[in-house]
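Lecture notes, unit on binding sites. The following record was shown on slide 14. It pairs a sequence with iron/sulfur cluster.
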Amino acid sequence: MTTPKKGRVFSGIRPTGRAHLGNYLGAIQNYVALQDDYECVYCIVDIHALTTVEDTANLRQNVYDMALDLLAAGIRPEETILFVQSHVPQVMELHTMLSMVSPLGKLTDLPTFKDMVRQHPHNVNYGLVGYPVLMTADIVLYKSNIVPVGIDQAPHVEFARETVRSFNFRYNTNVLVEPEMKNTIIPKVLGIDGKEKMSKSLNNHIELAATPEETQKRVMEMVTDPQRLRRSDPGRPEVCNVFSMHKIFSPDDVAMVDVECRRAGIGCVDCKKLLAKNLNASLSPFRARRAELAQNPEGVIDILHDGARRAREIAEQTMVAVRDAVGLPK
Ligand code: SF4
């Protein structure tokens, strides 16, 4: 007997191409786990990506690679709806409707908008301002009542909740469901530089689908305790990103590394080789599944198309009710 699900979760992920460890630890592993308790709707947000991606030459490949990684990581498309944002055009229509109840001052006040302006000072387009409105449309179009968020995304979901209330109030309706936030502890995964969050744009990342050799090469480039200059110097695992990774990927070795690092019983080179070995062992099942899926690209595309078909069915039901509530001519 199947256990009844606790609600419908929605989350969107940007098509950044092949996923890295930061994507996996920060989002994808949570996506996989949520499937056990919730009905899940996961969307690869290609329209959102257009706000900052000017050259779209790789967009299709990046969407495909992200889908491949999600499926290889354990997204189950027979129960979870996995699809591409632009394949459900109703989201653009709802975005326009919601924009009429979205105060401009509130949008430009959001910390995420200010961050984007700092990061892209030469491309402050309307899409950036309207990003949270489109995100709200994504959430409510699929009647999702739960959105998993880390601390930095919380203002967006709060905005979505307010927008739903404004819409329902203005049109004297209750067609839109106010989503709840499901606070998620998203670990900040540092890149191999040991300073910045892992990110492709900073080229400090380790791809999930890298070969074992590539993975070892990246791990050997990782910055360690800057005060440990010689092999004979005791190290400080608490400030070392290699140790942070051991905590995740080396359950059988982490205690030993902690002790031996502090008394200079292990050198950083050996410590990194051990991490690379454990990381490769952890990622091996993912990589095998990914290679198998990659043998049949049409199968992956079919999964996305089937997800879009299921998503469109829910979306159109919502939009019929929305158009009616707004009073658009039939
Ligand atoms: Fe970091 Fe390992 Fe070197 Fe210690 S031995 S400083 S944990 S890399």
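Take-home: The chain has a mean pLDDT of 93.
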